[in-house]
């Protein structure tokens, strides 16, 4: 009890101190989701807060299978020849949509809208460059707004998720490495090393720019039917002991949203242990 008349006031009595600074703050437990801005559709978490810090999180309902992925050119490749330029422009568009979401989260709405416009122009087969957007984002402090090391994952999870997440952890594995068409174009995977939020955002920018360069270098080249062209989203389901909630304890809510949005919707779906059809 604290001092007061006549009986004083109750002091916070949490089961454990705040994991960030040791203060004994009141515990607040609530469900978050399934539909919120910057939130994986369908995901419901049971979250315990102390102050603005997440103490624990449990999955009540996993996210819905992603609907924001353009699978058409990759599915068509299984049955017929497909222009390499279309494959790579789809890749660039996917990454720019992810980048736009992060830009909006760090309160750069104008640049977020610009990223969406660039993605739409790429989708419409217009000639466009990503470099000016990337430079503007750097000047506006995009990377400075993301704390170094935030959302870092280990190699096991990065490799299980595959795609840009794996390459953001420094792995050069990419099914395009073995494609003779990409080999003739001098394709070499771009990578990062830190495997954190900053690295995943940088990987999206790098792969989007590389994809447009490949599309420009091979406007009329077709990829043979049945040939693999690694899609721009995460690939495989991780082991069941990996959960997106393992990344959240100790984070402020704004940081948690950044971590969630540093993965595309396919990766979040897999980290919630829900297979995508």
From TrEMBL:
Coiled-coil residues: none
The family database entries (SUPFAM superfamilies) matched by this protein are listed as:
HydB/Nqo4-like (SSF56762)
Recorded superkingdom: Bacteria
Which Pfam families did the record assign? Complex1_49kDa
Annotated InterPro entries: NADH_Q_OxRdtase_suD, NiFe-Hase_large
NADH-quinone oxidoreductase subunit D domain: which residues? 150-217
Q: This protein is called what?
A: NADH-quinone oxidoreductase subunit D domain-containing protein
The organism named in the record is: Salinisphaera dokdonensis CL-ES53
The top of its lineage is: Bacteria, Pseudomonadati, Pseudomonadota, Gammaproteobacteria, Salinisphaerales
């Amino acid at each position: 009890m604290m001092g007061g008349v006549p009986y004083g006031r109750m002091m916070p009595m949490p089961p454990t101190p705040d994991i960030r600074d040791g203060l004994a703050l009141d515990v607040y437990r609530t469900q978050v989701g399934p539909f919120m801005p910057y939130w994986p559709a369908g995901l419901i978490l049971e979250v315990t807060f102390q102050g603005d810090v997440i103490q624990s999180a449990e999955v009540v309902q996993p996210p819905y299978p992603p609907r924001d992925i353009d699978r058409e050119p990759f599915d068509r490749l299984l049955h017929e020849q497909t222009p390499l330029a279309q494959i790579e422009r789809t890749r660039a568009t996917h990454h720019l949509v992810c980048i736009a979401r992060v830009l909006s989260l760090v309160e750069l709405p104008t640049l977020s809208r610009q990223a969406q416009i660039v993605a739409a122009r790429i989708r419409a087969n217009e000639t466009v460059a990503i470099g000016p957007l990337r430079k503007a984002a750097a000047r506006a402090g995009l990377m400075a707004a993301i704390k170094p090391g935030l959302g870092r994952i280990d190699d096991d999870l990065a490799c299980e998720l595959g795609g840009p997440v794996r390459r953001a952890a420094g792995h050069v594995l990419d099914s395009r490495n073995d494609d003779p068409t990409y080999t003739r174009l001098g394709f070499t995977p771009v990578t990062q090393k830190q495997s954190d939020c900053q690295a995943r955002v940088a990987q999206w920018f790098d792969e989007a720019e590389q994809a447009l360069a490949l599309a420009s270098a091979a406007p009329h080249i077709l990829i043979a039917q049945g040939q693999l062209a690694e899609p721009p989203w995460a690939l495989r389901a991780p082991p069941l002991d990996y959960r997106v909630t393992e990344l959240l304890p100790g984070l402020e809510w704004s940081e948690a949203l950044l971590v969630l949005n540093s993965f595309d919707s396919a990766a979040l779906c897999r980290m919630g242990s829900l297979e995508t059809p």
